[in-house]
TrEMBL record, chain B:
Keywords: Cell shape, Membrane, Transmembrane, Transmembrane helix. This is FtsW/RodA/SpoVE family cell cycle protein. It is a multi-pass membrane protein. It comes from the Bacteria. Pfam families: FTSW_RODA_SPOVE. It comes from Streptomyces anandii. The chain crosses the membrane at residues 28-49, 55-74, 86-104, 124-141, 150-167, 179-208, 229-247, 253-269, 274-292, 357-378, 399-426, 432-451. Its main location: membrane. It is found in: Membrane. The keyword Iron does not apply.
Length: 173, 478
């Protein structure tokens, strides 16, 4: 076999090998998966109230989504929960009408890595009107809204700090 | 594919899985590519050595392609959401290994010294057995969490496997290290299988104990010091790995098990102090054993001064491992782009050229560029394992995936580091490429478990049921 053919094959093989690596990396790049949260209604309406008129004319299916909450969406409804202090600082959770549990238990929505948090510490949920409520679940060290310890389920004002152990969270628009 | 939740069922927004990636077609395309590369290499070797396309080209290509195809169909049926890269990457490594083993079979030198010229067909047989085990894992292990039930049985099983080579009459002392057993004419390396079983034990154990290990600690000089009694498990594992080192004289196995435990402990507890302790303890253990155990001591000497060992061995006065130096020369003569497949002289390594030292052949014939690509492929397998661990929803699956991929990474490091002279040489095999039944079969099983975990992790979550709490609870306002 001629020297030239072998050289071409040698370099060609290396090129093919690297091509495989590059293709594999491209597959990884396109391999995104996880949770997609699609905001509907609340944010759009809060951000652009002038669209309300247009939405009235929207197809019934789309209106159905927005009426899903039962009543009308509040103007100042928070759309996300932000952790502002503690090991999870910067974490945000989109508020989608589901209950958010906080605690050290593995199945909590926000798993706190905090010695001062109980395993099922508190939960945050919307009531019928879409107002978000925080409730302490009988935790050892208590849940604080602003400076006061919670004794009953309490509505959360926008931006008010909720303290659980070393973690502080708040609701934002 | 994508499972966006029905828009009309929710309040103001929906959660949906992005792409819910069943990437089976991507996997198939990559798999075809991964089979084509070894076929190309095979033709290349034949042309370089015998001046003709080897006659076995069709049968090897079909054999590898058939095995990969069956594995792919089983993944498609039983793990449809699994990671698309693990199977093609493993297939490519296995195929390249087959080609290089076949290439070394062709060497007249190796044929003349008992290193029989029939290693490649046997390796193909081992590959078939490995893929059979892979399929068995995927079919019968419907949910990896089942393994959690066998935490302590796994511990006993792993210890049994590890100690098996020490049983008189069963264990075989091959070339100084006692890590083989011989059963019915086959020599098996139980350590390869113990790796997987031990990962199951560590994952189950750490999942239960991690809070105690992570939280009950004092802070001292920036490190979390664990309580004395929590040190128990790490001390026990350390002691066992020292025992392996002393009685089986195998640095690699011992390092692999201790390292895997430290990695999993760190991931479970997030305490850097465990890594510090682990490094200190393994350093102390290795230095201690190397100073009095002759076989380990010899390996360390060959690592510190391979040239001296080589000259001694050439002169016929002692000297134990001329191969270390031969391997280094092989890497050196390969240069950047290598000598081309089938055109190197790595058969001069003679002993274990197609098992422990197979990386030297890659280094010589594919050069730095080829070795880099090879190590990157290993790196990608580890990356997919870690990605699986990140995506897994249950702590047991997370720990198991990180343990298995950590063990895989450590093994690659220990072998390639040993062959390249970074650390003392150990008797372990490069996963998938090196000749050896136990290694190939065990690593296919390992990839099978990773694929099972990744299938569970990437399976789109069922649409969240509307939470009764949110609507039922009567809110009492103060």
């Amino acid at each position: 076999m001629s020297e030239l053919t072998l050289t071409v094959m040698r370099l060609g093989f290396l090129a093919v090998l690297w091509l495989f690596v590059i293709v594999a990396v491209q597959v990884i790049r396109s391999d995104l998966f996880g949770t997609r949260v699609t905001q509907r209604g609340a944010r759009r309406e809060a951000a652009r109230p002038q669209q309300a008129a247009r939405q009235a004319a929207a197809p019934p299916q789309q209106r159905g989504q927005q009426a899903g909450g039962g009543g009308r969406q509040r103007r100042n409804a928070p759309t996300k929960l932000v952790v502002t202090e503690g090991t999870l600082t910067g974490t945000t959770v989109a508020l989608q009408g589901q209950t958010i549990t906080l605690g050290r238990a593995h199945d909590s929505t926000i798993v706190l890595d905090d010695d001062y948090a109980s395993s099922r510490h508190a939960r945050i949920y919307p009531d019928r009107d879409g107002q978000w409520i925080v409730e302490d679940l009988g935790s050892t060290n208590g849940t604080y809204l602003d400076r006061s310890r919670l004794t009953t389920p309490t509505p959360i004002p926008l931006g008010a700090p909720i303290r659980i152990g070393k973690t502080v969270i708040e609701l934002r628009k | 594919m994508s499972s966006t939740t029905n828009p009309s069922t929710h309040h103001t927004s929906t959660i949906g899985a992005i792409g819910a990636p069943s990437r089976r077609n991507t996997e198939l395309a990559l798999l075809v590519f991964a089979v084509a590369i070894p076929v190309f290499a095979y033709a290349n070797v034949g042309l370089a050595i015998n001046n003709q396309v080897p006659s076995g080209l069709l049968s090897y290509g079909l054999g590898l392609g058939l095995l990969a195809g069956v594995a792919h169909l089983v993944v498609r049926k039983f793990a449809p959401y699994a990671d698309p890269l693990l199977l093609p990457l493993a297939t490519l490594l296995n195929g390249l290994g087959l080609v290089v083993i076949w290439r070394l079979d062709q060497s007249k030198l190796l044929q003349s010294i008992k290193q029989a010229g029939t290693a490649a067909p046997r390796q193909l047989l081992y590959t078939a057995m490995g893929i059979a085990l892979f399929i068995v894992v995927l079919i019968f292990l419907k949910d990896h969490r089942v393994l959690q039930r066998y935490t302590y049985i796994s511990m006993v099983g792993a210890l049994f496997l590890l100690l098996l080579p020490l049983v008189p009459g069963l264990g075989a002392n091959i070339y100084g290290a006692k890590i083989w057993i011989s059963v019915a004419g086959f020599s098996i390396q139980p350590g390869e299988f113990a790796k997987i079983v031990l990962a199951i034990f560590f994952a189950g154990y750490l999942m239960v104990k991690r809070d105690a290990l992570a939280l009950a600690s004092r802070r001292f000089m920036g490190l979390y010091l664990p309580r004395g009694r929590d040190l128990g498990p790490i001390l026990v594992v350390w002691f066992i790995s020292i025992l392996i080192l002393v009685f089986e004289t195998d640095l690699g196995t011992s390092l692999l098990f201790f390292g895997m435990f430290v990695i999993m402990l760190y991931v479970a507890t997030e305490r850097t102090s465990w890594i510090v302790f682990g490094l200190l303890m393994s350093a102390a253990g290795a230095v201690g054993v190397a100073s009095f155990e002759p076989h380990v001591k010899m390996r360390v000497q060959a690592w510190l001064d391979p040239m001296k060992e080589y000259t001694l061995s050439q002169a016929g006065v002692g000297g134990h491992s001329e191969q270390s130096m031969q391997a280094l020369w092989a890497f050196g003569s390969g240069g950047t782009l290598g000598s081309g497949l089938g055109q190197g002289h790595s058969d001069l390594i003679r002993f274990a050229a197609n098992s422990d030292f197979i990386l030297a052949t890659f280094g010589e014939e594919l050069g730095l560029a080829g070795i880099m690509a090879l190590l990157l492929i290993y790196g990608l397998i580890v990356e997919r394992g870690v990605r699986t661990a990140l995506a897994a929803r249950d702590p047991f699956g997370k720990l198991l995936a990180i343990g298995l991929s950590g063990a895989f990474a450590l093994q690659v490091f220990v072998v390639s580091g040993g062959v390249m002279g970074l650390i003392p040489l150990t008797g372990m095999t490069m996963p998938f490429v090196a000749y050896g039944g136990s290694s190939v079969i065990a690593n296919w099983a390992l990839v099978g478990i990773l694929i099972r975990i990744s299938d569970t992790a990437r399976r789109p979550a069922p649409a969240p049921a509307s939470n009764p709490d949110a609507e039922m609870t009567q809110v009492v306002r103060p």
